[in-house]
Amino acid sequence: MDSGFLRALEQVVGPEGLTTDSTRRRAYECDGLALVRRVPDLVLAPLDTSQARECMRLLREEGLAVIPRGAGTGLAGGATPHEGGVVFKTSRMRRVLEVSERDRFARVEAGVVNVDLTSACSHHGLRYAPDPSSQQACTIGGNVANNSGGPHCFRYGATTRSILGLTVITAEGEVMELGGPEPDPEGLDLVGCFVGCEGMLGVATEVTCRLIPAPETTETLLALFPSLDGACEAVTELIAENLEPSAIEILDRLTIEAVEASVLAAGYPDEADAVLLIDIDGLAEEVRATAQDVGEIARAHGAFEIRTATDAKERARLWAGRKGAFGAMGRIAPDLYVADVVVPRTKLKEVVLATTEICQARGLKLSNVFHAGDGNLHPNISYDRRDEVEVARVLEAGTEIMKACVAVGGSLSGEHGIGLEKRDEMHRVFSEADLDAMLRVRAAWDPDERMNPGKAIPVRGCMEIKTKPLPVPSGGSS
Ligand SMILES: Cc1cc2nc3c(=O)[nH]c(=O)nc-3n(C[C@H](O)[C@H](O)[C@H](O)COP(=O)(O)OP(=O)(O)OC[C@H]3O[C@@H](n4cnc5c(N)ncnc54)[C@H](O)[C@@H]3O)c2cc1C
């Protein structure tokens, strides 16, 4: 890269914000999807919105691709520099700028780690609801870009429900202020458009987040089932009965064993083939009544024991086991392919069975831990990336699982996004006209397609999606 250009960047971000060294750049060759790797040409880490804007202007002049990156915990290759380019990371933008107790919002920089936002508002009796299991590491900016979910999104909704405003730097280096703390701003809903954009519309540098009051009481139940089928049936019934726990998670036998053998051992039982981990939030009386109804439904579907966490410490232990489950799977094999699909909740049992058959037919080791209340499945396949034959079987199983979900009215991703992993599967759920509309929206924000190229929307030629030429706006470009 031209040394004058590198010097100009260094003047903006300082030496600590610029990584050119090839060994250090290697740390950014992939995200949580370890199957696809490419070392970026450069890594930039601005300190704030103003530095981010200056960097984007310099990158525009060089015509370089920009790959926004938070913590790199994504599981679909979204932050992987597939075609080279500059990784633009937010890890130095970590300030909580404002917490308004009265108006119930927080304004944070995009690199703030999810759990740090929760901590910043908890002493105001407030909380930020979306809680991905990766919340100890993932950033609010990454959550926005992936419209991330989490166990408690069953009741409180995925990230999009909690985002009020954004500061975004476009590929052209312009700063856009979208939305804001007021409840219903005028104009097109560009915040809604940006959330879930997977880094293709710009870099979010600041985020205004909706906060909600912390519940008066939370009760945590663990329902023990002799089979995964029974646990799935119970979830379907809980939804049909309009019961509203705040979280309903399933862990199967293999997951329980891995967690219990790890440092996160949570006291999950030996004797169950599956457990439902359920949180119920609300006023004490309402929580008690719901817990009773939930227990009855679970028993009617075979639960042989319902345990209730006795104190906050036990609750925290049960949830730490769940949230650390992916990591614990490292005991089974060196690598884990975390599939992410979503189905109508009446189809959970059917699809879990289909998934088991798909993996068994290929001799693959499957475990399940998922946000059952949302119909969001995570069939996890343990494998060894050094074994090419096994890798091919894993990828084939991943595709078959997606097909099985789509066949019952489900979709490709419940929460992890499309990224590189599922880009070429998009035609299974979207028509050419749908994909064309997405490309046009993208082109309106980023005419040169320099933001996170190659992600989420099938590229022209790759799937033979042909877009009509965009009309040239009168008066030239802005
Ligand atoms: C153990 C584990 C558990 C997980 N559990 C969950 C879960 O429960 N629910 C869930 O939804 N996901 C989960 N994930 C996936 C992942 O953590 C989420 O997708 C998370 O939101 C990614 O955040 P990140 O900061 O790591 O983003 P990255 O992985 O760095 O980036 C993700 C995407 O966002 C874009 N991006 C990042 N920052 C910005 C920005 N500031 N502006 C514009 N674009 C940006 C990137 O280009 C990329 O496309 C889990 C992952 C792991 C490893």
Low-confidence sequence ranges: 462-478
Q: Give the strand content.
A: 15-25%
The overall average pLDDT, rounded, is 93
Count of distinct structural domains:
4
Shape: globular
Topology-level CATH name of the largest domain = Uridine Diphospho-n-acetylenolpyruvylglucosamine Reductase, domain 3
Fraction of residues in H or I helices: 25-40%
Bound molecules: flavin-adenine dinucleotide
Instruction: Please give the alpha-carbon distance between the first and last residues.
Output: 28 Å
Query: Which structural class matches the secondary elements?
Result: alpha+beta
Please describe the topology of this protein.
Layout: H1 3-13, E1 18-19, H2 22-25, E2 42-44, H3 49-62, E3 66-69, E4 86-89, E5 96-100, E6 105-109, H4 114-122, E7 126-127, H5 140-146, H6 153-156, E8 163-169, E9 175-179, H7 190-194, E10 203-210, E11 212-213, E12 217-225, H8 228-240, E13 247-252, H9 253-260, E14 274-282, H10 284-300, E15 305-308, H11 312-323, H12 325-328, E16 335-338, E17 341-342, H13 348-361, E18 365-370, E19 376-377, E20 379-383, H14 388-407, H15 432-445
Parallel strand pairs: 2-4, 3-4
Antiparallel strand pairs: 1-2, 5-6, 6-10, 7-11, 8-9, 8-10, 12-14, 12-15, 13-14, 13-18, 16-20, 17-19, 18-20
This protein binds flavin-adenine dinucleotide (FAD).
